[in-house]
Amino acid sequence: xxxxxxxxxxxxxGILFSVFMIYWGSRTPTKRxxxxxxxxxxxxxxIAGEGTIETxxxxxxxxxxxxxxxxxxxxxxxxxVTKNQPLFKLDTRHLEADLQKAFAELRLAKTEFKNQNxxxxxxxxxxxxxxxxxxxxxQAYYAKTAAYDxxxxxxxxxxxxxxxxxxxxxxxxxxxxILQSNIRVGEFANVNPFDRKSLMIxxxxxxxxxxxxxxxxxxxxVIPNASARAYVRGNSSIQIPLTFSFIEPYIIPKQTLxxxxxxxxxxxxxxxxxxxxxxxxxxxxxxxxxxxxxAKPSKYEAS
Length: 303
Prior knowledge:
Blueprint: H1 2-25, E1 46-55, E2 60-62, E3 68-73, E4 80-81, E5 86-90, H2 93-124, H3 134-167, E6 169-171, E7 176-181, E8 188-189, E9 200-203, E10 208-215, E11 228-232, E12 235-253, E13 268-275, E14 288-294, H4 299-302
């Protein structure tokens, strides 16, 4: 009897659970209102592109004249710097040792030149010219000349090492800001052109421009000086009017790829440069925006 009652209870619970799940699944989902509507093209005929904010004079990836350890760092990300202000310094201990050696070699070269010059001068002031053979006189002359050349070489070597030490102190190329710093004291600074890691990115954090990528199939539709407008991703209420600056007349492979398996890696783009007034908008160097540019009708619209 108890066993039959348990089966009945389980059956009733199962029926109630099924009814509840059917009811729950058939409910109309609550519509969530969008905080910001996606941007809409403000022109009848337009080209859509992707704009990247960069400094007015373009971002500068600071490099090093030779690979070595980072010995000291004088600035950090966000610092405003002036032209020729020290930014960071490479390890120069080996260069300083080479400099001491070069100074010693210079002293030896000067001593040798002094000896050879005195010997040649002695031959020149002899009252009896027959006291020394022409061969000895010529050898003394060339020995003095060679010693003088060794002095010049030693002096150039000293200047070369001093220049290397001076170049190890990386300075700001002009007034601007440190946009990014990827170096640490003790790390190795490489000069490998295939290493795409930037040691330090320098630019202006007050004057901006926007580099807009236009797909090559739309390049023929571009109208110079046409109106353009950029929208901040995630907040389409922030709209920035753009002012045409110039077109870079060279189509290049697209760099900002998404990594999608369906993306064409051979995509090429035309780059158009615009200037704009940042105002109080929260915009940053390297930020991507959606850009709409007034353009000629496409071949589908024209037909």
